[in-house]
C-alpha cells in the first residue's frame, strides 16, 4: 500500500480537486483506493456528493479519538470508512469536529503517529491511499504528512508560489529532524494554467527548471473542473473529454508509474 | 477605531488580496490604518514587499506571547508594529512561528481575548484595523474574530461557495453562545468574477438574493491583481486604472460608508 498526501500551504490551489480526481481515476486502474479527508471543511466528500451535514456518519473524528486499542472506546478503522463512494473507491469523510479531536489527542505521546497506525490497520485492503491535506500548519496536517510515503504539491500561478513549495519542504525537513521521519516529495504540479496569462506562462518553465524530474506536469484552467463539484461529480463523470479530465488522466498515469502501481 | 476581519473558511478566495488592497486604499482616505496578518503564511506582508525571512522582525508571535502586563516578558503593542509600510498604513507581520504561539497561550483562561486586548492598547492611533484571517478553524482565527467588530467574507465562484459563508455564520453563532460575543457580518463579497463563465454569472444574483443589503458587490477576475503581489505592490501602485483597482476602490467606498468612517 502506498500513501500519497496532496498538500500545499497555500489555499485554493487545487488540493481537493487533485485528490478527488486522482483517486477516482486510479481507483479504476490500480485496484482499491482509499481517499482520506484531513481538512475540517470536509470538501473531498462534498466533491463526491457526500455532505457533512449527516453528523452521524462516522469519519475522521472517530478515527483519531477512538484509536487506542487498549481503551474501551476503541473502534476498528474498517468500521469508520464509507465504502464504495465510487467503483473501487472508499472514503474517510471529515467535518469541523476534527478541531475538537485535535484537542482530545493533543496530550498523547504518540499523537503524530495515530493516522499512520490507523491506515496500517487496513493496509491489506488498499493499493493506494490519497490524503487531501488542509492548507494549514496544524496537528491534523502533521498527522497526514507523518502517515504519507510521498507528497504532491499543487502550485497555482500567482503570488508567492515558489514560497509555498519551499515552505512545505522546510516543514518536511523540520519533521525529519524532530520526529525522525518525513515523506518524500514525489511531485510539484502546476494547476489552473491559462496560457493566455503571463503568470501561467512563466510558472511552468520556472517549476521545470527548479524541480526537474519532480515536476509532475500541469493542469489547465478548465471551468468544468469548477462546475463538477457543484453536482457532486468527478471530472470523468461530468465531462470525460474536457481538458480537465485529460490532464488528470495524464497525472494519474504519471503517479501510477512513479509509485510502481502498474 | 473599527476592527474589520476579512475571513472565509475556503482557501484561495481572495482574503489577502482584499485585506491588503482595502487597507492601502482606505489608509489614504480615512486616516491611519493598521493591517494585521493572522495567517501563518505571512502573505499580507509579502504582498506589500515585506518578506518573513527576517525572523528578527517582531510581529504576531510576540504580540500574543508577550502580552501579559503582569509578566516580566511583557512587551508593549506599539513596539511590535512595523510602521509606515505605506503612507498612513502600519502592519503587524506574521510567520509560521504563530503555530508555536498558539501552543504557548493555549493554557491561558483569557486566550480568546488576547488580540482584542492588544488592539485596545493602540486604539487611539488608528481609525481602522483590517485583519487578514487564515482559512482555518483554529485558535488564531478565533482570536481574530473575537477582536473584530465586523467581518467581510470573500466568495469565489466554484464548489460549495454558499457553504463557505454559511459555515462562517454557524461559527459566529457558536462563538456568541460559548463566548458571549461575535462580530457582525458586514458584507459578502463576490471575487474573481469572470462574466464569460456560467459559475460567475450565477454567483452574483445568488449572493444578492441570499444576502440583500449585506452583498458588498463584486471584484472582477483581473490578472493584474495576481501580478501585483509578485512585485510587492498594491493594485493602486501597479495598475491604478485596471478593473482590479476600480473594483477595490468601489469596495473601499462601500466599507467607509458602512463603517461610518467618512
Ligand atoms: N484547473 C482548474 N481550473 C479551474 N478551476 C479549478 C481548477 N482546479 C480547481 N479549480 C476550482 O478552484 C477552486 C479551488 O480548488 P480546490 O478547492 O480544489 O482548492 P484547495 O487547494 O483544495 O482549496 P482549500 O485551500 O480551500 O482546501 C474550486 O472552486 C475548484 O473547483
Ligand atoms: N480578482 C482576482 N482576479 C485574479 N486573481 C486574483 C483575484 N483575487 C485574487 N487573485 C489571485 O488569486 C490567488 C489567491 O488570492 P489570495 O491569496 O488573496 O487568496 P486567499 O483567500 O488569501 O488565500 P489563502 O487561503 O491561501 O489565504 C493569488 O494568486 C491572487 O493574486
Ligand atoms: Mg481543499
Ligand atoms: Mg491569504
Mind explaining what this structure looks like?
2 copies of one chain form a homodimer. Chain A is of the alpha/beta class. Helix content of chain A is about 40%, strand content about 20%. Chain A contains 11 helices and 8 strands. An 8-stranded mixed β-sheet of chain A has the order 3-4-2-5-1-6-7-8, with helices on both faces. In chain A, a hairpin with a 2-residue loop joins strand 3 and strand 4 (about 90). In chain A, helix 1 crosses helix 11 (about 245-260) and helix 5 packs across helix 6 (about 140-145). The radius of gyration of chain A is 18 Å and the shape is globular. The two termini of chain A are about 15 Å apart. At the A-B interface, helix 2 and helix 9 of A face helix 2 and helix 9 of B. Bound molecules: adenosine-5'-triphosphate (ATP) (2 copies) and magnesium ion (2 copies). One adenosine-5'-triphosphate sits at the interface of chains B and A. One adenosine-5'-triphosphate (ATP) sits at the interface of chains B and A.
Amino acid at each position: 500500500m502506498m500513501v500519497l498526501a496532496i498538500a500545499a500551504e497555500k489555499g485554493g490551489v487545487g488540493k481537493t480537486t487533485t485528490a478527488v480526481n486522482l483517486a477516482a481515476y486510479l481507483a479504476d486502474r490500480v485496484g482499491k483506493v482509499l481517499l482520506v479527508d484531513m481538512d475540517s471543511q470536509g470538501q473531498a466528500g462534498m466533491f463526491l456528493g457526500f455532505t457533512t451535514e449527516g453528523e452521524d456518519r462516522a469519519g475522521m473524528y472517530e478515527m483519531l479519538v477512538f484509536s487506542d486499542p487498549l481503551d474501551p472506546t476503541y473502534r476498528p478503522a474498517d468500521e469508520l470508512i464509507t465504502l464504495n463512494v465510487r467503483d473501487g473507491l472508499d472514503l474517510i469523510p471529515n467535518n469541523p469536529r476534527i478541531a475538537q479531536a485535535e484537542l482530545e489527542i493533543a496530550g498523547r505521546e504518540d499523537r503524530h503517529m495515530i493516522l499512520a497506525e490507523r491506515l496500517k490497520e487496513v493496509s491489506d485492503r488498499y493499493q493506494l491511499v490519497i490524503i487531501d491535506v488542509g492548507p494549514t500548519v496544524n496537528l491534523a496536517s502533521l498527522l497526514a504528512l507523518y502517515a504519507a510515503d510521498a507528497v504532491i504539491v499543487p502550485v497555482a500561478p500567482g503570488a508567492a508560489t515558489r514560497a509555498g513549495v519551499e515552505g512545505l519542504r522546510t516543514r518536511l525537513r523540520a519533521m525529519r529532524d524532530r520526529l525522525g521521519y518525513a515523506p518524500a516529495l514525489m511531485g510539484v504540479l502546476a494547476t489552473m494554467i491559462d496560457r493566455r496569462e503571463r503568470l501561467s506562462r512563466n510558472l511552468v518553465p520556472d517549476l521545470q527548471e527548479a524541480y526537474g524530474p519532480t515536476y509532475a506536469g500541469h493542469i489547465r484552467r478548465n471551468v468544468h473542473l469548477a462546475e463538477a463539484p457543484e453536482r457532486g461529480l468527478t471530472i470523468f463523470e461530468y465531462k470525460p473529454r474536457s481538458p480537465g479530465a485529460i490532464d488528470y488522466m495524464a497525472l494519474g498515469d504519471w503517479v501510477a508509474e512513479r509509485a510502481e502501481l502498474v
